[in-house]
Amino acid sequence: MAKYVSLMSGGIDSPVASYLMLEKGAELILVHFHNQTIQKESVKGKVERLAKKLREYGKVKLYMIPFGEIQRKVIQNIQSKNRMIVYRRIMFWIAEQILEKEGAIGFVTGDCLGQVASQTLDNLGVIHSAAKKPILTPILGYDKEEIKNIAKKIGTYLLSIEPYPDCCSFMIDKHPETKAKLVDIEKEEEGMNISEEIEEVIEKAEIILTPKI
Length: 213
What we know:
- The chain is an alpha/beta fold.
- Helices cover 46% and strands 14% of the residues.
- Helix 1 crosses helix 6 (144-154), helix 4 (83-102) crosses helix 5 (121-128) and helix 4 crosses helix 9 (195-204).
């Protein structure tokens, strides 16, 4: 059985993408990034409930990654219009180490083309170039209604629409970059120096669920 690392938010899309992979027989390592706010426990509870629901469809394990310090580095070093792109690239850098640790062969994301500014073809190309392993995007061509219908069918929809402080929504610029160029993004990233922070968040990662027997 193939094992993948699924980058999971608390929204609608990524749980549906994870479910579609579980239905194909994949085993998933769910990775969620949180920003260590005072609402941490409510975020943790919501994401854990989503993971438990997905566990009904296959083998999953959940990693909760503290991301507050790295977010501050991004804010300090990256132009606001590019922060979401860099933020998601760093997620892959961290998830890559979890992938190696868990013996997974690739990634799963809830990317859905064009639904938000970061999901233009140009931006997805730059974001996905941060990963060394294949990235599967099961719902890339789905429209929002199709995704909602699947979420309702599998029981994740009501959990996904519960309000919670998203770990990156406050970083979204009013006019985000939609045609990012890799050379420009990499140039900005050079000033961050976050290798120590990445090691630290992996050490502090909390494993909440183990695979279903």
